[in-house]
Amino acid sequence: MAQDDEKSIDQLNEEADIAADYLEGLLDIADYEGDIEMGIRNNRPTVQIVADDDTDIKHLIGRNGEVVDALQQLTRLAVQQKTGERSHLIVDVDGFLKRKRQHLRDIALDAVDAVKESGEPYDLKPMNSFERKVVHDVVREEGLKSRSHGEEPHRYVTVYLRNKSEDSEDAEDFDQE
């Protein structure tokens, strides 16, 4: 399937089902209690692990989301193994990604304010592709531009004012991750 082809709702639901089964198996192995909620958001299958016991669930998030990121990568591989196609599945644990998006939004808005006040470009700390994408989206919504620079794992976003000529054009000068 070409990258530009959109998957059908049935395909996205199938990916979510495969992911849910895989994650339930992992939870059983780890002896963690948790419920799995599935859905589709922005044409991507989503699976969230929720639990009553905050102690166990925090272990599934890890420091700075490292465990949930690893769970997502493993789950995507499990889905790809079953379907034969790459998945853009999102795995969340106890609303961690929602809280992370809000934090990144705040960081991006602070950078936008700094650029508007000084007129100078503003560099953010290195981020992963998910984080950079959130920042690029917020910066664009605020009418400024952004670009990613550097090499992984030190890739970072710089926020800029738009030039006068860019205001009249509908150009997108940012690096869509």
Tell me about this structure:
28% of the residues are buried. Helix 1 (9-30) crosses helix 3 (66-83). It is built from 6 helices and 6 strands, in the order H-E-E-H-H-E-H-E-H-E-E-H. The strands form 2 sheets. A 3-stranded mixed beta sheet has the order 1-2-3. Strands 4-6-5 form a 3-stranded antiparallel beta sheet. The chain starts with 8 loop residues before the first helix and ends in a 9-residue tail after the last helix. It is 50% helix and 17% strand. The radius of gyration is 19 Å and the shape is elongated. The chain has 177 residues and is an alpha+beta fold. It has 2 domains: 9-94, GMP Synthetase, Chain A, domain 3, CATH 3.30.300.20; 99-160, R3H-like domain (Ribosomal Protein S8, Chain: A, domain 1, 2-Layer Sandwich), CATH 3.30.1370. It has helices spanning 9-30, 54-61, 66-83, 96-118, 129-141, 164-168, and strands at residues 35-41, 44-50, 90-93, 122-123, 145-149, 156-160. InterPro entries: KH_dom-like_a/b, KhpB, R3H_dom, R3H_dom_sf, R3H_KhpB. This is Single-stranded nucleic acid binding R3H domain protein. One of its GO terms (molecular function) is RNA binding. It holds the Pfam family R3H. Residues 98-163 form the R3H domain.
Summarize the structure in short:
This protein is an alpha+beta fold and 177 residues long.
Keywords:
Ribosomal Protein S8, Chain: A, domain 1; RNA binding; single chain; KH_dom-like_a/b; alpha+beta; KhpB; disordered C terminus; three-stranded mixed β-sheet; 177 residues; 2 domains; 6 helices; GMP Synthetase, Chain A, domain 3; three-stranded antiparallel β-sheet
